[in-house]
Structures are given as C-alpha cells and as structure tokens.
C-alpha cells in the first residue's frame, strides 16, 4: 500500500526533569550572519525565519487539505496517538506551540471532556443515595466546568495560521478553555513554570534555533511537566526509503501546485524533513 | 510487501522516552541506560547546563538500578557521581523520584482506585505537575507493584524483629503453624485500608505483562516467610512447602476480599483451618506410608506362612508313607 511510503512520525516524550539536551546546533553561533539551511539551500538565520513565515502564510488556507492529501489522512492517527500518550487529566494546562490550525488543541479538549464526563458519572455512582437536589447540583457543575479547569493555549508565530485556527474553532464549536497567542517558539511570551504539558507537532523542524526552543520549553514547564514532540523522521529501510523519496520529491510538490497553487512551499517542506536530524540525535 | 508495510508501521511507531525501565523497555536497552539519568531538584536549577551535559556519563558510573521494585533499597543514600563536583547534595535519581510519587499516590487510592489519576494526585501533593503521572504506565500497574513490594518489605522487617527477640530470649519460639498463621495474617492486614479497591489491583496484576513481576514478588515473600519459620530443607520438601503456603495465601486473600465480618474474623478462621489441613496433610502422608508398609509386611508374612504350610504337608505325607512301608515289611 502506498501508506508504507509515508514518512514515519515519531514521538519524543521528555520530561522537564529529564535529560533534555539541545539538538545538534543547526546554527553554530558564528560572529555575524550565522548560516543555516532552508530546505537544501544555505541561508542566514534571519532570512530563514522570513522564508518560513512566508511559506506558512501562503499555505495557511489549504494547510489541512494538504496534510490530508500528503499523508493520506494518517496524520490524524498520529495526532490522536500523541494525545492518547499524553493522557491528560482534567485540570491540565497545555501549551501547543506551532499549533497553528489547532489540531492538537481540539483533540486535547475532546479527550479532557470525555474524561471529565466519566469522572462525574463515577462520582454519582459512588453516592448511591443522592437526593434529587444533589443530582441536579452535579449537572450544574458539569455545565459550568465541562473541562474541569483544563486550558489549552495555542501559540504560533504566524498570524495567518492562527486566523485559520480561530475560524476552524468557531466552525467546529470549540469555545471553552481555548486561547490563541502569537509568539515565537524561541522566545515564548509566558511566565516560568506555568504549563503541565508542552507539545509541538510537526513544528520543531521549522524552528531556526532548536536549542532556544527547548530551553524555552524547559522554562515554561512546571517541575514534573511533560514535553511531547511529534515529528517526521528518517526511514531506515533502503527499499522503503527509495519509495518514500520518490513520493516526496515527485508527488508532494505536484499536489502542492494542484491543490494550493504553491510548488515551492511544498518543495521546502519535503527538503526540511530531509534536513531534520535523525532519531538518534533527538534522543541525546 | 505486507511484511515491509508491517515493518514500516513498527518503525513508524513511537519510541517512548520512558522515565523508568520495567519490562516494556527491554526492547530498547540503550535507552534504558539513559533513563537512569540525573533528575535535578529545584534548588540546583542554576546548574541546568552542566548536569545535562554530564548525564550520559552517569549511566556508566552509577550501577544500573534494577527495575524490579522489590530490589529497591528503602531509604538508600542517593549516589551521585563526582562529575566535576557539579552535583549538589540533594541530588535525586529518577527511580527515587518515582518511588516518592508512588508513595504519595497511595493515599489517593481509596478514592480514585489504582489508576493514573491517583498517581497524578500524588504528584500534585509533592509539588509536581499532574503530567508527571505520564512517567508511569496508564493502567496503574507500577503503583500496585510498588505497594506490594512495600508490604513485603514491611513483613520482612517484622519477621526479622521477631526473630531477634527470640534470639535474645525475650519471647518463645512459636510452633510452625502458629508462626505461619501470624505471618500471613500480618501480611494480609496490610491490605485492609485498600480492601475496597483490591480486587481491581489483583486483576491488574494478572495482566500478562505484569505476571512476571507480580509472581516474583509473591514467591519472594513466601520464601521469606518460610525462611523465618526456620525451614532448612534441601530436598523436594522445599518446593512442596512453598507451593502449599502460596496456595494458602492466595485462597485466604480471595476470602478476605468478600469477607464482611467484623475485623475479618471469618478470614482468620479460614486461614487457621487451611493451615491445620496443611499440617495434617503432612501427618497423613506419613500415616499412609506406614500403613502401606504394614500392609506389605502382612502380605509377606501370609505368603511365608502359606509356603511353610505347603512344605509341612509334603513332609508329613512322606513321614506317613515310611511307617506303612515298615509295617509292610514286618510280617515276613
């Protein structure tokens, strides 16, 4: 099946107190104009940030459609697995960085909502002899706090992506516990020790200084907080990798041109996946 | 093609950055070594950079702590490597942190059951985020194993103290059945605060991926009890004794879970009867053996008698025939 050729996604689960090391310095700090990569080109850091901003500005509208067509819908499964691994309990504060269109945030809200419902049901079951007043009071509680104090903050550097995300939220009916913040992953506009979970799904390879992003993650997470990173990685099987290369370089940019009218952005996307350090480096 | 797809799916799976090793991480040994890495306390936050750099070294310096909870020494001094003297005094390993979280989580078990929620509440009381419960398996098995190993350690300490008292001559040595009864009762009494949720715990411990560790804990506890009871057998008795006691313990535990009498009297009476049965079983075995021997001897004797009788008849017949011959010879 063609699905076999899709980029395998990987989950890095780290903890604030765990050994979190900077990834390979993609930009070893040179004195002036540190060189970094943009896809397979070499550009300066500032230029890279601008270019990436433009890429996502262009694709924002069609971002979800392109995700579906590129991964044949499997990206939904990966994101579901991410939230399942997170196993959030009601009362968890999540910051979803580079969360743009809000995929992870919506899944988080659904998950917490169902957990909360189950919790209230179990509480009712335990108190067998409740009067009708107490029962109606618990219904009130459920209405007032459907998420049990959980909050998710979606942070993205790109205004267009946030705009699309807000529209989606309105369309799908998500209003409680959701916030949209414009911010750079390398310099988050939050206080120290605020969040329980930090997620970054398919975003960290677009960050220019990954070490700064990790430092920021460490800073805003509470002690005992969790860092979850979902990202494309390398295929080790040679046969599969050939098929995957074929698919990436021949099919995806064409799809990009047809669906979103933007070949270059998807060329960048595929190249950036290749340039991202492989799994082993991530673990250190 | 299907194999390649399956292979890619497996690779397309996720590597878990698990805090503790345990059975699942046996697939990824290099990761497991990294997991024994440093965990800093808030006090030493300024030294974020250096200890992070030194963590890969620590896996080789500090002895890899065994993942099985029953081997975790209680109250051991945290060992720290002298990586340039960067580690501060209140350095805590990840295993110890997990230990603390699980201990704190135990008080929430009567309310939430043996679940990740109880662990999350426990982490909250320690000042950590609720997400720290993500370190553990989501079905709460680590919590139960931790509790069981804690109980076993308490039992060992209790039995050791008793032994010391006996050695000092302050108390008399109990007869075996009394000793076993008291030991099993003491161990089961530790379950009383959690008895409502204990059936859940037993069912979780019977899950296939938990069976090795739970069986390990059970057998080492039974072994401990027999050791302090003074068992020094070196033959097959060793196995039979442990098997018998395991059976008694498990059945008593089951009875306890549905016992509603005051202070579990029914359970202790059941225990007494089972131990008496076990003792009698030993005597009965001896009796059967001796009866068998007696029977065999009886049969042997009967056979000898019969054969003797046969011989006698033949001899008497010969004896009778001789005088007739003599009588026959006389008149001439």
UniProtKB/TrEMBL annotation, chain A:
Family designation: Belongs to the class I-like SAM-binding methyltransferase superfamily. MenG/UbiE family.
Pathway(s) annotated for this protein in UniProt: Cofactor biosynthesis; ubiquinone biosynthesis
EC number assigned by the record: 2.1.1.201
Protein name: 2-methoxy-6-polyprenyl-1,4-benzoquinol methylase, mitochondrial
Main subcellular location: mitochondrion
SUPFAM superfamilies: S-adenosyl-L-methionine-dependent methyltransferases
Function: Methyltransferase required for the conversion of 2-polyprenyl-6-methoxy-1,4-benzoquinol (DDMQH2) to 2-polyprenyl-3-methyl-6-methoxy-1,4-benzoquinol (DMQH2). Methyltransferase required for the conversion of 2-decaprenyl-6-methoxy-1,4-benzoquinol (DDMQH2) to 2-decaprenyl-3-methyl-6-methoxy-1,4-benzoquinol (DMQH2).
Encoding gene per record: COQ5
Cellular component aspect of the GO annotation: extrinsic component of mitochondrial inner membrane
GO molecular function annotation: 2-methoxy-6-polyprenyl-1,4-benzoquinol methyltransferase activity
Catalytic activity reported: a 2-methoxy-6-(all-trans-polyprenyl)benzene-1,4-diol + S-adenosyl-L-methionine = a 5-methoxy-2-methyl-3-(all-trans-polyprenyl)benzene-1,4-diol + S-adenosyl-L-homocysteine + H(+)
TrEMBL record, chain B:
Membrane-traversing stretches: none
GO biological process assignments: ubiquinone biosynthetic process
Domain of life: Eukaryota
COQ9 C-terminal domain span: 211-282
GO cellular component, one term: mitochondrial inner membrane
Domain Ubiquinone biosynthesis protein COQ9 HTH: 94-124
Region called Disordered, residue ranges: 38-96
Main subcellular location of this protein, as a coarse class: mitochondrion
Pfam families: COQ9 (PF08511), COQ9_N (PF21392)
Residue ranges, compositional bias (Basic and acidic residues): 42-51
Molecular-function annotations in GO: lipid binding
Pathway(s) where this gene product acts: Cofactor biosynthesis; ubiquinone biosynthesis
Location of this chain's protein in the cell: Mitochondrion
Keywords: Lipid-binding, Mitochondrion, Transit peptide, Ubiquinone biosynthesis
Family membership noted in the UniProt record: Belongs to the COQ9 family.
NCBIfam families: diverge_rpsU
PANTHER family xref list: UBIQUINONE BIOSYNTHESIS PROTEIN COQ9, MITOCHONDRIAL (PTHR21427)
Assembly and interaction partners: Homodimer. Heterodimer; two heterodimers of COQ7:COQ9 come together on the same side of the lipid pseudo-bilayer and form a curved tetramer with a hydrophobic surface suitable for membrane interaction. These two tetramers assemble into a soluble octamer with a pseudo-bilayer of lipids captured within. Interacts with COQ7; this interaction allows ubiquinone (CoQ) isoprene intermediates presentation to COQ7 and facilitates the COQ7-mediated hydroxylase step.
Function: Membrane-associated protein that warps the membrane surface to access and bind aromatic isoprenes with high specificity, including ubiquinone (CoQ) isoprene intermediates and presents them directly to Coq7, therefore facilitating the Coq7-mediated hydroxylase step. Participates in the biosynthesis of coenzyme Q, also named ubiquinone, an essential lipid-soluble electron transporter for aerobic cellular respiration.
Protein name in the entry: Ubiquinone biosynthesis protein
Organism: Anser cygnoides (Swan goose)
